[in-house]
Amino acid sequence: MHFLAVGFLSAVTVDKPTGVLGALATGAEDFIKVFNKGGSVLLSLMGGILPTLVVLLTAVNALVRIIGPERIENLGKAAARPGLQWYPVRYIVLPFVSVFVLTNPMAYTMGRFLPERFKPAFYDSAVSFVHPILGIFPHANPGELFVYVGIATGIQQLGLGLGDLAVRYLLVGLVVIFIRGIVTERITARMMTKSEKGE
Fold first, then answer.
1. What residue ranges in the chain does DSSP mark as E strands?
2. Mean pLDDT, consecutive 10-residue segments, the chain of 199 residues?
3. What distance, in Å, lies between the first and last C-alpha atoms of the chain?
4. Under a CB-based contact definition with an 8 Å cutoff, are residues 79 and 94 in contact?
5. Which of 124, 125, 187 is nearest to 195 (CA)?
């Protein structure tokens, strides 16, 4: 009896609705397709990058506990010292450690250890580093991993390796954040001087 019912139902055809009902039916189908696609992307991430990110975050949290949060805070206080020798600490080391350990967006809170005149430059350095670090340390900014993945996909299609790209991306990022930090510090100093003079 069941086979007869299935056979009968498979022989029945229903015309696709037209007009307003057809538009609603098509809209409903397209609406659910968006969520089906999102589900398949999530499933692919769960088998790919998400486990890696969870393990990296766990490792970084363990590293912070081993080193001690107070030592990381002391780095921020040391970076606030005046003098040219502290520029690399302030605009390379501190942004790197902040983004690596605290990740985006918590990395910017390390600026609280710096005097007001250095805060804009530190922020500029840190915010400029959240993408270059992704090739080697994707846990630092997983919400925007698509930027690096887009570049990496093009490199892979050319038959090139990703290790070289990740290292170059990181090194160029360190140079760029150093330059941006110094330039922004100079601009901030000039603007603060003008505001003090009342210009």
1. none
2. 54 67 76 79 68 71 75 76 86 90 81 85 92 86 80 86 87 95 93 79
3. 92
4. yes
5. 187
Contact 174, 131 (CB under 8 A): no
Q: Choose among 106, 36, 35: nearest CA to 64.
A: 106
pTM: 0.63
Beta carbons of 122 and 95 less than 8 angstroms apart: yes
For residue 25, the tally of other CB atoms under 10 A from its CB is: 13
Q: Do residues 89 and 79 touch, judged by C-beta distance below 8 A? A: yes
Rounded to whole angstroms, the Cα distance separating 108 from 89 reads: 15
Q: How many whole angstroms separate alpha carbon 177 and alpha carbon 11?
A: 68
Query: What are the CA-CA distances from residue 70 to residues 66, 75, 104, 110, 134 (Å)?
Result: 11, 9, 20, 12, 26
Q: Which two tokens stand for residue 48?
A: 């790919």
